[in-house]
Amino acid sequence: MRVDRTRPLEMDLLIREILFGYFRLNAVGERMFSALGLTPGKTSLMRSLAEEGPQSVAQIARARPVARQAVQRMADELAKAGLIEFIDNPSHRRVKLARLTAAGKRMIERAMAVEMGWAARLARHFERREVEVAREVVRRIIRILADEQSSPRTGAARGGKR
User: Is residue 106 situated within a structural domain?
Assistant: First the structure.
């Protein structure tokens, strides 16, 4: 039995669609959260703290993966706004943990309510199975990329573009 494998061009086109989707989603997020005084990045950082509890800036950055300095800037802005605070870290004397304040918890609840309303409107255009399959494909791509990133032999090292 012949297995029908994806050709490189098809995969490249899928990755481009995901990237263009990311840019569109980011633009929607900018509009959606701006009324609350948030950006998609700040909302994401606060959501991580709400879902996973207090974390260091480095932990938050590694989970994305994005530059620690960018996360630090957002965290500092959120702290200045009273939405997060830095607390002592029982595992490390010098590295503080970020956690939501009471105001931050209320703000992320508001932001998630707005996002869920938007997601409900979008969901009407899709069958449940379509979304499940799309999520699985994206999760597999993320796992493969994470494995390649942690491997000493990446595609670029072998002469590939990605």
Answer: yes
Q: What count of other Cβ atoms lies within 10 Å of the Cβ of residue 72?
A: 15
Distance between CA atoms of residues 44 and 30, nearest Å: 12
Question: Which residues span the domain enclosing 80?
Answer: 30-122
H/E element, 52: helix 40-52
Nearest to residue 31, comparing CAs of 20, 46, 43? Answer: 43
> How many beta carbons lie within 10 A of that of residue 112, not counting itself?
15
CATH number for the domain harbouring residue 51? 1.10.10.10
Query: Cis omega (within 30 of 0) on the bond before 54?
Result: no
Nearest to 134 by CA among 28, 4, 32, 21: 21
What is the SS3 assignment for 161? coil
Q: Which mean pLDDT values do the consecutive 10-residue runs of the chain (162 residues) have? A: 79 95 96 96 97 95 90 97 96 92 98 97 97 96 89 55 44
